[in-house]
Design brief:
The complex is a heterodimer of chains A (261) and B (146). Chain A is an alpha+beta fold. Helices cover 31% and strands 26% of the residues of chain A. Among the domains of chain A are: 49 residues, 2-Layer Sandwich (Uridine Diphospho-n-acetylenolpyruvylglucosamine Reductase, domain 2), CATH 3.30.43; 95 residues, Enolase-like, domain 1 (2-Layer Sandwich), CATH 3.30.390.50. In chain A, strand 12 and strand 13 form a beta hairpin. Chain A is globular, with a radius of gyration of 18 Å. In chain B, 29% of the residues lie in helices and 52% in strands. In chain B, helix 2 crosses helix 3. Classes of the chains: A alpha+beta (261), B alpha+beta (146). At the A-B interface, helix 2 of A face strand 4 and helix 3 of B.
Chain lengths: 261, 146
């Protein structure tokens, strides 16, 4: 690890002020990606701004058909909620127990790892990401590999998930890291059928061809013959692009089977 | 790692060829490129700062043009070191072909990365290199779209 200044912010304004006045600052939420990167000397910021002592950022509440999850809520806390069982189940399968006890939903979304689970939920459930400056529709949030709609220094404060009529998440996990090789959230919401896919491409995306097929017929067989274009999919030592393309269909079918039985 | 692709650039093969030899053009088009200098005919030295999620590293490298057939084809030999972060090397084959819209550029890359970046980075390397390549040709094509 290289040396850096550890700066603990007590409120959002202070956190942003520290960030702005530093030549190279990063926020730390749960630190499940940042700390290993620092330890491997793959990152070398001047200032690390800790968000953990800011009041209210970790609260979870539910009202008027919306589950509102504070950005600093840990994965294990989301896993213990009951209003959206598919979201709780997704959180319960992130990483291992240590990661779930430290990692946060806000940190995961701001990082936008292409294999993270939460992006599939934000897209699949049609969530809204709130920041200290504005509200960003989930559909507009994920831009590219590790790239989000967040401005430099902007902080996620909470994520609002509308409670779906029914939803399910299926993932094929890497056995070592438990990252999603491919993960698919299928949801029937008041606004229609939504399908969010993570792990397959540079960042999570909605699969509209599946959404259309499932809108006419909510059954796994409805996805037979619906082509998945895997030409831009990720390819690494764990899975080729074509394999990931095939997994998208298999995981989507598993999710559909879960929510129809 | 292997990667291939093609882009159509709205300029003649000669214009594309000439532009691809200019350090200032390359610097402008490579995302995060801080320096690009011609050290001798056909050899460039460069410094590129990359940012992939939590990873930030500054790579110094050389790019060498091998077996040029202007304005049709050449090989690019690339090697780069990123301090503690790791290293990479590779060879790209570039072909230019005149088409009605301008020039079709085909490329094929074979490369390897090593060091710490390879330990945690193979998962991300292809997506990252694809993004860099896309950005490069988008910016490169923009030169002729005014």
């Amino acid at each position: 690890m290289y040396t850096f200044n550890f700066r603990r912010a007590s409120n959002l304004d202070e956190a942003q002020q520290i960030h702005q006045s530093s030549s190279d600052a990063v926020y730390v939420a749960g630190g499940m990606t940042l700390i290993p990167s620092l330890k491997l000397r793959l990152a070398n910021p001047d200032d690390v701004v800790d968000l953990s002592q800011i009041d209210g950022l970790g609260s979870i509440s539910s009202a008027d058909g919306v589950v509102s999850i504070g950005a600093m809520a840990r994965h294990c806390e989301v896993a213990a909620t009951s209003d959206i069982p598919a979201l709780a189940a997704l959180a319960n399968r992130i990483g291992d127990a240590q990661v779930r006890n430290r990692g946060t939903i806000g940190g995961s979304l701001a990082n936008n790892d292409p294999a993270a689970d939460y992006p599939a939920a934000v897209l699949g459930l049609g969530a809204i990401v709130h920041t200290n400056a504005r509200a960003i529709a989930g559909d507009d949030f994920f831009v590219d590999l590790f790239e989000t709609a967040l401005d430099e220094g902007e902080i996620i404060t909470r994520v609002d998930f509308p409670i779906p009529r029914r939803a399910a998440y299926a993932k094929f996990a890497n056995q070592a890291s438990k990252y999603a090789v491919v993960g698919v959230m299928v949801a029937e919401t008041d606004a229609g059928i939504r399908v969010g896919v993570t792990g397959a491409a540079a960042c999570a995306f909605r699969l509209t061809s599946f959404e259309e097929a499932l809108s006419t017929n909510m059954s796994a067989s409805a996805l037979d013959g619906v082509e998945v274009d895997s030409s831009d999919f990720n390819s690494d030592l764990h899975a080729s692009a074509a394999y990931r393309g095939s997994l998208v269909t298999v995981m989507a079918k598993q999710a559909v089977d879960q929510l129809t039985t | 790692m292997e990667e291939q692709g093609e882009f159509v650039i709205p300029a003649t093969p000669q214009e594309v060829w000439d532009a691809l030899q200019k350090p200032d053009v390359l610097q402008e088009c490579i995302d995060g490129c801080e320096e690009m200098t011609l050290t001798e005919e056909g050899t460039f030295a460069c410094v590129v700062a990359i940012k992939v999620g939590p990873v930030k590293a500054r790579f110094t490298g050389t790019v060498k043009i091998v077996d040029p057939h202007p304005p049709h084809s050449y090989f690019l030999d690339v090697s780069a070191r990123g301090g503690g972060a790791g290293f990479g090397s590779g060879r790209a084959e570039v072909e230019l072909q005149a088409v009605p819209e301008g020039t079709r550029l085909n490329y094929q890359v074979r490369g390897t990365i090593g060091g710490k970046l390879a330990q945690i980075g193979t998962r991300l390397f292809q997506s990252f290199s694809r993004k860099m390549t896309r950005t490069f040709f988008e910016r490169f094509s923009q030169r002729w779209v005014r």
